[in-house]
Amino acid sequence: MKEKKSHSIRSAPGIIVLILILIMVASLVACSKPPATSSPAASSPATTTPVAAKPITLVFTSHNNGSGFWAKNVIGPYFREIEKRTNGLVKIEEHWNAELVSLMDAYDAMIRGDVDMAEWFPSMLQGRFPMDDVVSFTQYNSNRPAWVLYELSQLYPQMLEPYSDGKILLRNLGYSVGMFTTKKQIKDLEGSKGMKLAPVGKWSSELIAAYGWTPSPVPPEESTTALQTGVQEGSGSSWYLLWEFGWGSIVKYTTMPIICDEMLVNLSMNKDTWNSLPKEVQDVIEGMQEWAINFQDAAVVKNAIESPARAQAEFGIETYVLPQSEIDKMAEISAGVRAEYVKSLEAAGLPGQAFVDKYLELSKKYTDPQYAPE
Q: What pTM value is reported for the model?
């Protein structure tokens, strides 16, 4: 097959590529209704709790930028909603930029009670959340990533058993849709062999290696430096990272679709902290669950739709769409790695093939435009 050429935003062909990308992503979220079981409006109960004389202060930690995507569009608004619905009884003390604890230590710090709440990535705690690793094999950019996880956990409650030492509040995906690169654009597997790319866990590493690339892990806080210095030559295209971590001035290319570094982004509360909260506060937080799922999905998907045009306008990033022949090659390779993952689940006495198949089924189902979040 003749090689496709990539162009910058300054050329007419580049604009055509951009239009194609926007059409491809926007087709997932064309207008219509979300799942019949929930909607942002319908699942936003008015439950509140009486005002108390002395507010309850909860300390939260995250490695993310306090003015970035997750702070402004997901976790921050979620906290404001808790404060609002408890009439000020609960106050969240937010600490961003890993000022209290690093991402790699955030979960254990929360379990110990060093902090009340933490944002953390299960895939980086190898072996502790094996069923969560299923997201490494995402094949579709679902309109409802958080809802898929919620529905899957209802069918397979074993997913949530490792969370029993804390209280899980939010679960979502980083929503990586391709691969950012700094020096060379990925146009096929053959021509990109050996490229040093960032994995986000064991199975992400296995996929990257199977495709012929070199897994080059570093702590997330060091990812910007790794891309600048060449320790890594690429990382997953979660678009908000161009601004969140300052990658926009470093990354030159993106290739889509490449999904080999998807991961969960979780928010959990210390178990003792949760148990110490008044029941009316617990009821408020529990009653927000479906509202939070819809809210997250709307924010994450909207960002994925709007960011490519902004990234090209601000940074001149060149975008390339893989031909179907390369997509098929990657799917075949991925299937082999996925089979090994299934074996590892079954060896641990956990649901295997049926569980993975259901995840892929739900992910594909929610690519339908009728499930686009409002």
A: 0.79
Q: Tell me how crowded residue 245 is: count the other CB atoms within 10 A of its CB.
A: 20
Query: How many structural domains does the chain have?
Result: 2
Query: Confidence class of residue 50 from pLDDT cuts 50, 70 and 90?
Result: low
Which are the contacts of 120, defined by CB distance < 8 A and separation ≥ 6?
A: 103, 106, 107, 110, 266, 267, 268
CATH number for the domain spanning 209: value is: 3.40.190.170
Which pLDDT score is estimated for 32? 38
Q: Summarize pLDDT for 215-264 with one digit per residue, the tens.
A: 988 887 788 899 989 899 988 878 888 888 888 889 999 898 887 777 78
Q: Using DSSP bridges, classify how beta strands 253-256 and 234-236 pair: parallel, antiparallel or unpaired.
A: unpaired
**DSSP track, 174-226:** ----SEEESSS----SGGGTT-EE---SHHHHHHHHHTT-EE----GGGHHHH
Assigned domain for 351 exists: yes
Same domain, residue pair 225 and 117: no
Q: Whole domain around residue 283: which residue ranges?
A: 47-129+138-175+265-304
